[in-house]
Design goal:
The protein has 1314 residues and is of the alpha+beta class. Helix 1 (20-36) runs antiparallel to helix 3 (125-153) and helix 19 runs antiparallel to helix 20 (715-752). The longest helix has 41 residues, at 670-710. It is elongated and about 135 Å long.
């Protein structure tokens, strides 16, 4: 085996001094802090800078001394600031070397140099600010001095220029006006302060390095587009980031890029994942608005778009919208846009663009405001990166710690936990003893305690032979609380959760299950193997260090004479080249271990050697080695990139509504309706193209057949036959001309049709197309009976199929084999709009009806205007006629609300209803003139048969109080080709319409007796009939769900999605419910079966008001509930045999995983022994359970700490609500999207109440199961406590530099345990 090659040790530098990067960094920090504290740069910058440099030089001069001295600060108001100085070995004023362990103060530790910083010429409030700044600068210089020796021992190349080369930055008086204390997140509240316009201000020298650090996570190739196109202007440190600024997240990222939060130079920090994602979303939205704006501007500038052009493909997600530059669909209000140049729209122009809901509903924004989950996430981040306060906040590092046996990372012996180390906040053994005896040692200080690099190395080496069990027993030892009582070491749960958890686990002695080694999520799973057979995994940000221990056997006699020193060297992870071991300097040993980790993760120069060791230069190629010489134990730090996932709540979140529910916005995305209108145009063109093609074929047949027949005929007969052929050709030519007129007429009717009422045109088109085909078939049989082939026109599905219905007043087709279309039609119909948007005080006032109709129907009627109208009081002009019109089509609908009793909640008599009867008839003109009144009477009698409420009202003779009726008729545009029948009688097609509505006020004194007042039911029952098929849709809590859909910005999207659906075989549940999924994959429809009985249904209806209240409160907080957007009962019945072909209750829910490429799904209930059977795990699209996650996936799928904190808060808020609502047996559904690096989580199945039979089920299962297994059905409070405790611990958080980790999430680890 070849010997290892060792590079020669570096020559020792005898004269120590700060390098150029450190001096420049001190200059940047000092200037920024003076500006932040509003201290004049002149003369204080030069004064303080010179003092700090003097202290650093004297510190290096005394670095070999073993003295531990103090530095004091003294302020004197007399004399000039330029007289300020550092007095070595003089101790006056306040002592600033006290190791203050509060967050407000930085630790200033004992050091080889001592003395007093005497500040002259300070007065008033500026004095305390100067003392604070000087104290922080002393901390920085002391850290840099120790860091210098670390860099020297680690062979880092430091640049030292001549002493006269580096000068302090010139103080610019214009900078004195700077003030960064306006708030780093002032945009959250919309700061009104104006942006400064001074262009003469010099910028602070920025940190630069040749190395490029990968920042944040990518959203794929689309991210590269914006990163290459986006140009961020030179940064203004003092600008206020406004909430409406589309570049606000880019500016916040710039603050992160130029952050002054470290005492070390050349530390560059990756962007927080949330900040990176929000910036990308804003840029995508801006780009989409730019595309939409340019399209509408082009049309307004005179670009003519062919109405029959090919329809573009719809985008389904926000991320796919960037490729829509060639789309021809618009979702903005054109009247509100300005005629700006296409290539340069202003921000005001872009703000006027209204994007469709399939984009905005899945965004993190409502208008320009953030939703609650993103706001919470940003508030969790420490983004104050320039101020002195922000600097102090960042003088610590939080890491994830795991200790596991080599080769077995799935089941760690210790961890995973989060451990925080406040830099240089050391605790001596004497302080620990005094604190424990006096009960003054706070748990916070034990958690956040730092240790020196030397003590950590020595501690690991000394305990490397100890068993894992022994070390863990020491770490689990009790600590003293602030009251002096012995308690357990703190767990990861909130204090309230721990209290409640102890009450739940009272049978086991109240022991915190977080420390229970029998739990798979416990942080303690000890083994008997020595510590050196384990790996310490330290995770932070986007990387991790694996720490290994190797033992080199040494003879005891030789080991006794070896000095007690720590050596360090490097190895290459690829070629095994190493440097010569070198003894650590004594001051290097005193360096903060937490600070050492910060440099290892973030410093670009910490991995830059003065002389390359080999050709491998990647960070992961470098192995840092330390060895305690007498022990023969080597500690190796091996770095590797680590992927972490962003844990996200359901993307559809509740926002605030700034406009009324009664707004004039369309019921569906106009772009979708325009697409459907384009489809209708294509259907018209296809019809007439098919008919003319068929006529061309007939014409060719006539010519060919005529030539054939004329061959054997005499001249007279041939001449006669030619005349007949010419007659037929003339008829065909005339038919073509009439068809062209009819085609234009149909297009004209369609152009006048309102987008919300395309069904009216579809019915008209179906009737007229059938008339054309019937006429053509009749003419063909008369002219050429031997031709058997008819026109080959592929009919639209709503004409071809008897199971598809075009009900009036909507654009949604009702499909019998797609039940959700019944709901979509109901929510989009004019009758439903009128009912739900009517005021309860004046339910159907005339002015309200007109306004609602104007909103729902638009400016143009969907069919030609009425040619005649009448009422039931008109007299018949000819009662003896017996002619009956031919009924081509007929529709009937009714919508009803009941009164409910305030005391019992049960339904009583009808409060309101609306009915409509529409029939399309073909009749002759003379018949129509003679039979108008009789037709009205026929309609009235038929109407009463369909409307039992009308008959009831007429019998009670209260028609004048609330019942209103109207009758009308209108001529449908006649066809030129078929304007007369076979008897040459003119044909007319008419639509007859009868409507009624009734309303009884709830405050009618004649109906209210005693204290039992009537209230109008929140539920709406809608019935509509066509072709002997009756559809019923009961909309529960119609107005409340409408409000919720509006808050979630999906009120249009729900109707669009529900218009089409497929059956869906969902996996993972045990309810055996049948599922449907909309064809666009956005919504899931769950049919309630089996256990869904009357009691459960009533329980949900009682739960619904609490659900709406909770959703309203969720506008400011993240919610993990998978939203329910509607509850309906839908039925289909044959009116002839009265048989029901469909009857089901359904819930409309969001599809959690829409737009994701899910590779794994999990269903969590907080029961760790839930496993999917092995035989089912290989099935496609299987949903795994708790035990499967813990055994195989948990340790390999860590998440961002910020997203874990957000999910945990959301879970606790939502489960608290569910528990108070008597709900249990819900689950957390989690999907893994590896491509996006996201986990989407949502609470599902939260409608199960703890009823009496579930109590029986719980007790029965508890009795039958073994004592070690937990049951699913437990009381709601207990279910909540278990769910919060277990499920939140399933996710392993990886903290980043900007994460504000809460104290109760921190635990002391083996890293700083001695």
């Amino acid at each position: 085996m070849a010997e290892k090659r060792h590079s020669k040790p570096l020559p020792v530098i005898q004269q120590y001094t700060l390098d150029d990067s450190s001096r420049q960094h001190i200059s940047n920090l000092l200037k920024r802090w003076l500006l932040d504290e509003k201290v004049p740069l002149e003369p204080w910058f030069n004064v303080l800078y010179n003092i700090i440099i003097v202290i650093s030089e004297k510190t290096f001069t005394s670095s070999e001394s073993n003295l531990k001295q103090k530095i004091c600060i003294q302020t004197i108001s007399a004399s000039s600031p330029t007289d300020s100085k550092f007095l070595p070995n003089v101790f006056h004023g306040s002592n600033k070397t006290t190791n203050d362990k509060t967050e407000e103060h930085l630790p200033i530790f004992d050091f080889p140099i001592g003395g007093t910083v005497r500040i002259y010429g300070s007065s008033g409030s500026i004095t305390s600010k100067l003392v604070d700044i000087v104290s922080a600068m002393i901390y920085v210089i002391q850290s840099l001095c120790l860091e210098y020796f670390l860099m020297r021992d680690q062979h880092v190349k430091l640049i030292h220029g001549p002493s006269t080369q580096l000068k302090p930055p010139t103080a610019d008086k214009s900078d004195e006006k700077a003030n960064l204390k306006q708030g780093f997140l002032s945009w959250l509240i919309g700061s009104p302060q104006k942006k400064r316009t001074d262009t003469t201000k010099k910028s602070i020298p920025e940190k630069r390095t040749s190395a490029f650090l990968k920042r944040g996570l990518s959203f794929g190739n689309i991210t590269k587009k914006f990163e290459s196109d986006k140009q961020i202007p030179s940064y203004d440190y003092d600008q206020v980031v406004e909430s409406t600024d589309p570049q606000r997240f880019s500016k916040l990222k710039k603050r992160v890029e130029l952050a002054l939060i470290s005492s070390s130079p050349d530390c560059f920090f990756p962007y927080p994942t949330l900040l990176n994602r929000l910036d990308l979303e804003v840029q995508l939205l801006q780009e989409q608005k730019r595309i939409y704006f340019n399209e509408i501007t082009q049309s307004k500038l005179g670009s003519n778009h062919n109405i029959s052009e090919t329809r573009p493909r719809r985008a389904s997600t926000l991320l796919s919208t960037i490729n829509l530059a060639n789309r021809k669909r618009h979702s903005y209000h054109a009247d509100e846009l300005n005629n700006s140049p296409v290539h340069k729209p202003s921000q005001e122009d872009l703000d006027s663009v209204i994007l469709p809901q399939f984009i905005t509903a899945y965004s993190s924004f409502r208008s320009s405001e953030l939703l609650g989950d993103s706001r919470f996430g940003l508030e969790h981040l420490l983004l104050d990166t320039f101020t002195l306060k922000g600097f102090k906040q960042h003088q610590s590092i939080t890491v994830g710690v795991t200790c596991y046996p080599i080769g077995c990372p799935e089941r760690p012996c210790f961890g995973p936990i989060m451990s925080k180390m406040d830099y240089f906040k050391f605790n001596t053994e004497e302080e620990e003893k005094i604190g424990n005896l006096e009960g003054e040692q706070e748990p916070q200080e034990i958690r956040n305690m730092d240790q020196t690099l030397g003590s950590v190395i020595r501690n690991w080496c000394e305990k490397s032979r100890s068993s894992c069990q022994t070390l863990i027993d020491e770490s689990k030892a009790p600590i003293f609380s602030t009251e002096g009582q012995i308690t357990e070491r703190p767990g990861l749960l909130h204090s309230q959760s721990r209290k409640s958890m102890n009450s739940v686990n009272s049978q086991s002695g109240g022991r915190n299950k977080k420390l229970d080694s029998n739990r798979q999520c416990s942080i303690y799973h000890a083994c008997q193997q020595p510590l050196m057979d384990h790996v310490f995994c330290i995770t932070h940000g986007t990387g991790k260090f694996n720490v290994y221990m190797d033992l080199v056997q040494m003879e005891e006699e030789k080991a006794a004479y070896l000095p007690d020193v720590i050596e360090s060297w490097f190895m290459c992870n690829k070629c095994d080249v190493s440097t010569m071991p070198q003894k650590l300097h004594a001051l290097t040993e005193q360096f903060s271990f937490g600070k050492f980790l910060e440099l290892s993760f973030y410093s670009t120069r910490f991995s830059t050697f003065s002389k390359p060791m080999c050709q491998h230069k990647a960070k992961s190629d470098l192995i840092r080695c330390f060895r305690l010489k007498p022990k023969g134990v080597t500690i190796k730090f091996v770095y590797e990139e680590a992927k972490r996932y962003e844990l996200r709540v359901p993307r559809i979140q509740v926002g605030d509504i700034k406009e009324s529910l009664y707004g004039k916005e369309p019921r569906m995305n106009p772009a979708i309706l325009r697409d459907w209108k384009l489809t209708a145009i294509q259907e018209i063109e296809i019809l007439f193209h098919s008919v003319t093609t068929h006529l061309d074929l007939l014409n060719r047949y006539i010519l060919a057949e005529g030539k054939r027949k004329c061959r054997g005929l005499t001249s007279d007969l041939a001449r006669q036959h030619q005349t007949e052929l010419k007659t037929l050709e003339t008829e065909i030519s005339e038919i073509r001309k009439k068809l062209k007129v009819d085609q234009n007429g149909l297009l004209q009717v369609l152009s006048k049709t309102d987008l919300n009422e395309l069904n009216d045109f579809r019915r008209y088109f179906g009737i007229q197309s059938n008339s054309i085909l019937e006429y053509l078939s009749t003419w063909q049989k008369k002219a050429y009976i031997e031709v058997m082939d008819n026109c080959n026109w592929i009919k639209p599905d709503y004409i071809e199929s008897k199971n598809i219905h075009c009900f009036p007043g909507s654009s949604i087709l009702v499909r019998e084999d797609e039940p959700t279309s019944i709901i979509a039609y109901t929510l989009s119909s004019n009758a439903y709009l009128q009912e739900i948007f009517s005021s309860e005080d004046s339910h159907i006032r005339k002015e309200d009806n007109e306004a609602i109709l104007a909103t729902s129907n638009g400016k143009n009627r969907s069919v030609p205007s009425l040619t005649s109208s009448g009422s039931e009081s008109e007299e018949s002009s000819d009662s003896n006629t017996t002619l009956k019109p031919q009924i081509l089509d007929g529709y009937y609908s009714s919508i009803e609300r009941k009164f409910i009793s305030s005391s019992t909640g049960s339904s009583t008599e009808t409060a309101s209803f609306r009915t409509m009867l529409v029939e399309v008839c073909k009749t002759s003109v003379s018949e129509a003139q003679m039979n108008h009144s009789k037709r009205v009477e026929d309609l009235k009698s038929k109407w009463q048969v369909h409307s039992p409420w009308i008959k009831k009202q007429e019998e009670s003779k209260v028609e004048n109080r609330g019942l209103k009726r109207e009758f009308s008729e209108r001529d449908l545009e006649p066809l030129s080709a078929v304007e007369k029948d076979s008897d040459n009688i003119s044909i007319s097609t008419k639509e007859f319409k009868a409507t009624s509505y009734y309303y009884e006020p709830a405050n009618d004194s004649s109906k209210n007796s005693g204290d039992d007042k009537k209230m109008i039911s929140p539920h709406i029952s809608y019935k509509f009939v066509h072709d002997n098929t009756e559809f019923t849709c009961i909309v529960y809590y119609a107005k409340e769900f409408e409000q919720l859909r509006k808050q979630c910005d999906i009120n249009q999207l729900v109707i669009e999605s529900l218009s089409r659906c497929d059956s869906w075989a969902a996996s993972g549940g045990k309810s055996k419910s049948h599922f449907y999924k909309t064809k666009d994959d956005k919504l899931v429809v769950k049919q309630m079966v089996n256990a869904w009985n009357i009691a459960e249904k009533d329980a949900f209806l009682k739960f619904a008001p609490k659900y709406f209240e909770h959703m309203n409160q969720s506008s400011n907080l993240p919610s993990v509930l998978a939203k329910i957007f509607g509850f309906f009962t839908i039925r289909i019945k044959n009116t002839l045999d009265k048989k029901e072909t469909l009857d089901m209750d359904v819930l409309i829910m969001e599809h959690l995983f829409f737009g994701h490429q899910i590779i794994k799904k999990f269903d969590f209930k907080g029961i760790q022994d839930r496993h999917v059977e092995e035989s089912r795990k290989q099935q496609k699209d299987i949903t795994l359970w708790d035990g499967d996650w813990l055994d195989e996936h948990r340790m390999h799928l860590p998440v961002n700490e910020q997203s874990k904190a957000m999910i945990q808060t959301a879970i606790q808020n939502d489960t608290e609500f569910l528990s108070k609502s008597n709900i249990m047996d819900y689950s957390l559904l989690v999907g893994i999207d590896k491509e996006k690096g996201e986990m989407t989580a949502g609470v599902v199945d939260f409608i199960g109440t703890y009823t009496w039979y579930k109590k029986i089920e719980s007790r029965s299962k508890s009795t039958l199961r073994s004592s070690r297994k937990e049951v699913t059905v437990v009381p709601p409070e207990q279910y909540k406590e278990r769910f919060d405790r277990e499920v939140c611990d399933y996710f392993i958080p990886v903290p980043g530099k900007f994460d504000h980790v809460q104290l109760d999430q921190i635990m002391p680890s083996l890293l700083n345990h001695s």
